[in-house]
Each structure stands twice: as structure tokens, then as C-alpha cells.
Fold this sequence. Notes:
This protein is mainly β. The chain contains 2 helices and 23 strands.
Amino acid sequence: MKYKIFGEKSVPNLPWQDMPDNCNDIIWRYSANPIIKRDAAKNANSIFNSAVVPYNNGFAGVFRVDDTGRNMQLRSGFSKDGINWTISDKRIEFVSEKDVPQPFEYGYDPRVTKIDDKYYISWCNGFNEKPTIGLAYTTDFINFIQLENAFLPFNRNGVLFPRKINGNYMMLSRPSDNGHTPFGDIYISQSPDLTFWGMHRFVMSPISPWEKTKIGAGPVPIETERGWLIFYHGVLTSCNGYVYSFSAALLDSEEPWKVLKRGSRYLFNPRELYECVGDVPNVTFPCASIVDADTGRIAVYYGCADTVTGLCFTTVDKVIDWIDENSL
Ligand code: BMA
């Protein structure tokens, strides 16, 4: 491995396939995609933008399941190999420690961040029927304790860093509006306790044509000797609607609002039928990556056309070298 990785564990059972022969891409797809079909759980219309982590010699996750009533739900799931998943028939029932007055309205696009011995879930949470960032934690993926919403409406794509930086938890987010927001920059907010958030800093705006409409953070940042490696989605508005692709950037280790380098093009975009056709065509939306500290291999989980879940692969070295050669 060329670049050191910090804070990640060995994941010897990481789902993995070598890059196919004659492939010139930096990120390549799992050959049996999609790994989670739209009806892989009871009453599911679609199972997509979802987050998974290594757990107990296997894997666990929080899944975006839109049910056949088209309620946007979060459900938990488990897997031995990270590919074949058993997803709950019922949505997560969040309980709050201190009577936090926020009944579950809807939830989507979860991310799961392990900090110390807890798994924190950040997601787009209905707050008075308006989207903002909800927060909760679990230790067993069965019981979930909900915390105060991090922000006021309107906000989406809240992604927690896996450790405190200079004494504060850090969260990327994307202030937005109530609809299919036609704008969006990434910001960072800081908190001593995961309740009080402030010291907001601007991180980055859309620049290149592929991401011109809006951008948003994706999986949990990966700490490397070159800074925090992030994958983020970007949206292009075509004459036929939004196209969601994703790319990568490096943020400063101690001041992560500083963008060190950023890709000038997308790394991954909707090309396969299951990415181009579905409830919302032309969407590849990454919400999780699992990294093996021993090899630098990365498995990225991404939503496909707002309908199914796909898996793709890369390595820390490949992505950082690509950023070096293709930065803005
Ligand atoms: C965003 C979110 C995502 C979705 C995307 C494309 O605003 O709602 O959940 O994948 O739009 O529809």
C-alpha cells in the first residue's frame, strides 16, 4: 500500500472482486449487481441509498426502504458476507433517551459512522414534514436511541466523521430546500457533544459540468496520510432531469473544511440498466464504503436509480493517485 490509512480495521471478509481485465476505470462494479433487489424485504417498493458497516465478524446496516405505500422508512439488516442481506420486515422504531419530542415522520439516505463503541446513524429526517438531519445511535442494530435533530430544516446528506477533530465531532451536510433542490454546497458543522452544533464552515461548491446543479457528501470519510478521502455525489441537470454521479476529494486532516484536492471529473456514473432505469432514472448515490486497513481495498455501496442497491470496488491508492492526476 502506498498511502497509510488511519482508524480503519482489518476486514478480511470484505466483499471483493479484482478489477476485470481491460478495465480502465478507477472504480469497477460487482459482476452480480444489484446485490439488493427492490423487493428483498417485506412490502418493499425499493431498497437503495443505504449504509453498512463491519459488525460481529459479519456486517450490519441501516437501509432505506420505501415501502409499497411509498412511506420512506429505515430498516436494519445483517449479512455474513456483505453481499447477501437479511433486511427487517419492519421499520426501525427509534426511542429517545430524554424524551426528545420528534416522532418518526420519514427517513431516508442513512449513513452509519462508528465512533468508539457506538454506531451513529445520520439520515434525512422529517421534522415538521421538512427534511433535516436526524441522529441516533445503536450498539446492536436492534435498539436505536434517537438524539436531537442536528439542524433546522432544510438540510440533507449529513455525514459524521469517525472521530472527534480538535475536540469536536464534525458533520458534513448540504443545506437545501423542501423539494428536489436545484442547488447545493457542502458545509461542515462542529459539536462537542453531538447535540449542540455550530462553528459552521463552507467546504465546497459545484464546479465542473458533471456536478453543476449540486453536490452532497456520500460515505463516511476515510482518514489517510494524505487527508480525509471523501466520495461525494454531484448532479447534472439534463433536458431529461437530474443525473447523479460521484467523484472523490481530499480534505485537510485537522481542518477538514479545507479542500486539498478534488477530482475534475466523475469517477462513477449511471451506465448499467439498473442504474439508468428505475423509479428515478440515472442515479448512482453512494452512502457507505467499507475499507480493509490491511490492503486499502474499498467496497462502496450505492443506490441505483432509487430502486436497488449496488456494490462497486476500488482501492485507497487508486483513488488518491487518480485525484493527483486529475485534480481541479
Ligand atoms: C435526492 C434524495 C435521494 C435520491 C435522489 C435522486 O434528493 O432524495 O434520496 O436518491 O434525490 O432521486
